[in-house]
Structures are given as C-alpha cells and as structure tokens.
Amino acid sequence: MLRRLPLTILAFLVAVGAVGSQEPEISFKKLAVFPFAVLSKTPMEHLGEKVRQEFEERLKGEGFTMVSQVDLVKALQAPDERVREGALRVAASFLGRQPSSESLAGQFRTLSRDGSLRVRYQLALALGQLQHPGRGLLLAEILAQDTANPWMQTGVLCSVPPDAGELRDAVQRVLLAARTDEARVRLTVTTGSLHAEAADTPRLTVVATASPGQKYPPECYTKGVTVIASDYRVSRFDPTLGHKTTSYFSRLAMLRVAHLKGAFEALVFTDDDLLTEGAISNVFVVRNEELWTPPVDTPILPGITRAAVIEVARELGLAVREMGVTLDDVLSADEVFLTGSMMEVVPVVRIERQAVAQEKIGDVTRQIGLAYARLVDQECPV
C-alpha cells in the first residue's frame, strides 16, 4: 500500500544522501550535522523510532513510500545547498516519469541558475530522469554557465532528451530553404496553448527562422564603440529577466535612446544601481588584468558568448570574477567590452563622454577577441 512520505522523512533521506542508495547500513549520526530545521520545525531528537522504521522499510523493500511535489518544492527552496541538492535526488528517484506540477517546474527553472555548482549539476542529472517539458532548454541554460566544466558537460549530455535532434533538423531545413551561405537563425520555443490546464503536459511548439547574417561594421572592432548608461532601471522581481524571450519592447526602447544619442549600446542597471548587462549584450569590465562581470543571479541572461569568453579568458590565465559591478566600477575600469552571438567581442572606448583606456582598444580585450575567434573557428568550421 502506497503511503505518502512525511516531510520529516524526506529531510532524513536528503540528510544521509540515501535516495537511490544500495548500501544496507546508514549511520544515523549524520543527522547531527544536518540543518534539519530548514525543512521542518520538528526537533531532530523527536524523530524517534518511527522515522528509522520507515527508512529501514524502504531499504528492505517491504514498503514503498511517496513524497509529494509540495514537499519537494519546499525542500528545493531551502537555504542550504545540500538540502537543494539532495531534494533533486529525491525528485529524480520518487517522481520518475510523473508530470511535474507548475510550481515544481518553476522551481526547476530557478535552480537552473542556482548559485551552487553542485545544485546545477544535480539538476542536470535529474532532468534526464524526469518528465519535464522544455528540459532541453533548461539543460542548455545550465551548460551555458559552465561550458568548460567536463563534469557538467557529461551531466548535461547524459540528460539530453531524445527530441533534441528535432531542433537540429529544423535549423538544417530552414538553412536549406534560405539558400544562403550565412544566415542568422532564431529558434522560438513556446509551451503550446495559453489555455492549457496546469495538470496538462505542455507540447512544445518550435519555430525556426532565418534572416540574412548582418555583420556589424568593421570599425566597431578596429576603433571601438560608445555606450551610455540607460536611465531606465530593471527590477530583480521581473520574471522575464535572465531569460531569452520574445518580449523585446523594454530593451529596444533602451537601445533606441542609445542610438538617438549616437551610441552603440545602453548599459542597464538594477534599481539598486548594479550593472546587469547591455540592452542586447553581456558586459565585461577589466581591472588590473582581471575580468569582472555581473553574476547570472543579478539577474542577467546567461549568454552563450559570455560563457565562451569566460572559458577562453581562463585558458589565457586571466582571473574571472562574477561579482556585483557598479557604475563607478565601469567608469574607473581599465577596459570594457561587450559580448553577444552576433557581435562576438566588441571593445568599448567611451562611456558617454568619458574615455575608456584613452579611447584605445585594450590589450586584454584584444587577446579575448582573438582567442574567441579561434574558438569559433575550431568548433564551427566552415
């Protein structure tokens, strides 16, 4: 007979890392160091014999316990990264191919940008075992933050859904129809009907389009560009931030103001004056031969080019710090550059009327640009 697993037992399983374990014996002393209070108000010393019996029953196969998705959501929101990591193991083990609830799916999206590498890695593994629509996009977002990490590469590849090839095929068909050597391909993925019930399994709709591959003027790279600090501010509570969406109005409004002022791009800040990104780019600041860039949870879009630049910078022996960046940090920087899939690496030589690096392209920016170009040639041969 199926029984719902109480949250206290869920905490116990997460604490000892026993989900999916084949070990016949577990030391209950591990509970002494586990931050159990984040999941339950029940004191550890009151767990008693019932918890042990339930756990032993599960190991012996005498009974099968269930955990509710409500409990999992609570565990996945815990402050301690060990709890979140363990809860993902529980999710993969207990839910299997059950459809994820809307709240649980939302928590997976949040954890795809978790500050803990361990949590993101465990999510990548769990997505391979869960029936979660759009998991391919989540895996791409996870990998974009750690492209150089071989463990993350393996975890993501192990979980790639079988329908991922459809995206590749869609791109190939569109390129053949476009009949051009160079094109800009855009993939738009939606979760189907706006009127679907929360319990329904969304069916992804994929639209692939191709347009002429318009390149930026050569002088953007040989002479550098001017950017402005946008007067608009973004809120951390905006649910679209950090995601590639079709909602471009605010960003295009910022970019239009920049263009009217004769600038190439607009730097966007939060309402507490932290740099996020450009209207259509990611931003890097160079100080004392270190690269500073806003962390993903600022929040910013975890750009593919951004991740590649971090990878090549570290290969060049440069320190990369993902940290909060203020306007003063930008104005006092040794160098500043922008990144994006179409623009690649663009040096910034002026912030409004203030010169950067004496209005010359800095050595670090030049090294990064060359290294990125080599990476593209290696991974995307013509």
Write the layout of secondary structure elements.
Elements: E1 3-4, H1 7-16, H2 48-60, E2 65-66, H3 69-76, H4 81-95, H5 102-111, H6 117-127, H7 135-145, H8 150-159, H9 164-178, E3 183-190, E4 205-212, H10 219-222, E5 225-234, H11 249-260, E6 265-270, E7 275-278, E8 282-287, E9 290-293, H12 304-315, E10 319-322, H13 327-331, E11 335-340, E12 344-351, E13 354-355, H14 363-379
Helix pairs in contact: 1-4, 3-4, 3-5, 4-6, 6-7, 6-8, 7-8, 12-14
Structure characterization notes:
With 382 residues, the chain is an alpha/beta fold. It folds into three domains: 3-159, Leucine-rich Repeat Variant (Alpha Horseshoe), CATH 1.25.10; 164-212, no CATH class; 219-379, D-amino Acid Aminotransferase, Chain A, domain 2. Helix content is 40%, strand content 18%. The protein contains 14 helices and 13 strands. It has helices at residues 7-16, 48-60, 69-76, 81-95, 102-111, 117-127, 135-145, 150-159, 164-178, 219-222, 249-260, 304-315, 327-331, 363-379, and strands spanning 3-4, 65-66, 183-190, 205-212, 225-234, 265-270, 275-278, 282-287, 290-293, 319-322, 335-340, 344-351, 354-355. The strands form three sheets. Strands 5, 6, 7, 8, 9, 10, 11, 12 and 13 form a nine-stranded mixed β-sheet that branches. A two-stranded parallel sheet has the order 1-2. A two-stranded antiparallel ribbon has the order 3-4. A hairpin with a 3-residue loop joins strand 11 and strand 12 (344-351). Helix 1 (7-16) crosses helix 4 and helix 4 packs parallel to helix 6 (117-127). The chain is globular and about 60 Å long. The N and C termini lie far apart (60 Å). The model is unreliable at 1-66 (pLDDT under 50).
